[in-house]
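seq/struct pair 1
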Amino acid sequence: MATATTPADDDASKKVTEADVVVETAPIEEPTEEKTTAKAGKRSAKALKEAEELQAKEERKAEKAEASDAPKQPVKPTRSRLERRGKNFRKAAELVEKDKAYGLAEALELAQKTNPVKFDATVEIHVNLNVDPRHADQNIRDNLVLPAGTGKNVRVAVFDDEKIAGADISGIEAVTKLLEKGQLDFDVLVATPAAMPKLGKFARVLGPRGLMPNPKSGTVTTDLAKAVKEAKAGRVEYRVDSTGIVHVGIGKVSFKKADLLANAQALLTSIKGNKPASVKGSYVKAIHVTTSMGPSITIATSEV
């Protein structure tokens, strides 16, 4: 049996259909993740902002590099150590044969010829020893009087009230006044064992400059006259450094060849005589002679 529909029923069904369509076509909103930040550390707001700025800066640099079509400057080759030295030094170095070990007399004569400066430079000998200075018996240290002197005008101060001939400064009071003012107007300080306690408060002043009297260097002695005479005559003290090398000045470029040779032989003999019993094998690894600002010359180790 058919039922009749009214216009009101048609309107109602039409509304329901339109609502259904709206529901079906409405977009579904997805939940968004919010960035969480910490109060400190890499996840803090400040750190994140800095990271973003750094990334943006790197991107700008990359874009700028890609946009630049300018050719890169050629890299200059690194100059050798000899090429970086002065003209006079390079000229003097040409007289020295590479990889050649000279005899002692020949090396000293060549050192005098290769002095690149106008002043009377010091001739130095550097001896590389096969020792470990951390061991007490291998901490090589000694002093000797060079036969021909050092060529220097040595100023000697005596920390004692006894007047010593040849001393430039004498008297405990006179030396103390200089030390209190920080005036070290001397090259060698000699004292007696009894006077050493009075120098204790000046150890920080004298020690770093190598002026503190020491029995091993012959500057603490009861024979002050002998100590002053030897200091004036050219006594030198040597001590191996932390790398096992002894550095000693043996005279001036203006010295006679025979005088330089005598001084060098005396030094090498002293070093050889201080060879520790605990050192096995070769004692001297290398010997070099040079002037204050001149090129290095290798000496045959057989000379020791």
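seq/struct pair 2
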Amino acid sequence: MRGSIFFSGLVMFCMTLFFIAPDVSQAQTPPTKSQIDHGEYIVRVGGCADCHSPKVMTPKGPEPHPAKGLSGHQADSKLPAIPKDVLGPDKWAAITNGDFTAWVGPWGVSFSANITPDPATGIGGWTEDIFIKTLRTGKHMGTGRNLLPPMPWPTIGQMTDRDLKDVFAYLKSTKPIANRVPDPIPPPKQ
């Protein structure tokens, strides 16, 4: 009887370890230089910095700010007043600020996200799975609020898993920049 109790206890202990032990088969291996380079290529040709970086004016026009790249709409940036009677079905569909980081349309005001690896204000706390789910579902962190225009998540979400994993690897390799982007502003009630 005593051996039976010991054996039962041992089985329960092993089952507990099985259910609470981390799944090492799911452990992330560090990305290779090739993956990071490929992700950088996609981010560059995909124009991610066009919306996710504040701008500086150059002789060629606005270009991404070299020290604030991919940090999104700047928390301390003031929005200009929205002109009346500019937006509508027979008017402009959207307007943007001078940085192309804030957009106004029928959805309200959307702000480009901080996609640097800052843990508090960017994607530093995100996993690869959350990143991919966000871009496949159009939901913040894969389950939250809708991603708003002009974010082209329906197109980006069609990229291969490899492409999205490489983009994530590149973004996680960039310099973290602390910048808490404002929450979207809903449209005024009519």
